[in-house]
């Protein structure tokens, strides 16, 4: 749960979410996460790694084998500083929601799979 909060804080901003296709949103979130991987702050770097893996997984899961490098280059060329800020807010919201969802699912697994001591 701490990682989910770190990710959401690192990716969150004050700009409202933007309306994009799933691919464009995920590509922009990948850009935001990749920028964070170069941060001097350890928590932001960790958030960047987690976010980049998450969003690349979404992209590749939706369209395996697609040339994402070509799409990424085009998306980055179209992004302005304000686009990056808007993407940060939207991506932070996505990561926060998924972090809570993952935490709840992990707890269910732990509660179910924990070996109880025998009396």
* Spans where pLDDT lies below 50 across 5 or more residues: 11-19
Q: Main β-sheet: number of strands, strand sense, barrel status?
A: none
Average per-residue pLDDT, rounded, comes to: 83
Apparent shape: elongated
Number of helices: 5
Explain what this protein looks like in three dimensions:
- The protein starts with a helix and ends in a 6-residue tail after the last helix.
- About 8% of the residues have low confidence.
- The protein is an all-alpha fold.
- It is built from five helices and no strands.
- The longest helix has 33 residues.
- Helix 1 packs across helix 3.
Q: What is this structure's SSE topology?
A:
Elements: H1 2-11, H2 22-36, H3 42-62, H4 68-78, H5 81-113
Helix pairs in contact: 1-3, 1-5, 2-3, 2-4, 2-5
Features of this protein?
76% helix
Write a brief structural summary.
The protein is mainly α. Helix content is 76%, strand content 0%.
């Amino acid at each position: 749960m701490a990682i989910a909060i770190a990710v959401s804080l690192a990716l969150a901003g004050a700009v409202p979410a933007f309306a994009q296709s799933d691919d464009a949103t995920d590509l922009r979130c990948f850009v935001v996460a990749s920028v964070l991987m170069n941060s001097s702050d350890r928590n932001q770097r960790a958030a960047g790694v987690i976010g980049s893996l998450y969003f690349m997984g979404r992209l590749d899961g939706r369209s395996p084998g697609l040339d994402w490098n070509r799409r990424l280059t085009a998306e980055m060329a179209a992004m302005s500083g304000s686009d990056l800020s808007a993407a940060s807010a939207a991506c932070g919201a996505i990561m926060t929601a998924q972090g809570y969802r993952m935490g709840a699912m992990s707890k269910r697994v732990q509660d179910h799979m924990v070996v109880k001591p025998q009396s």
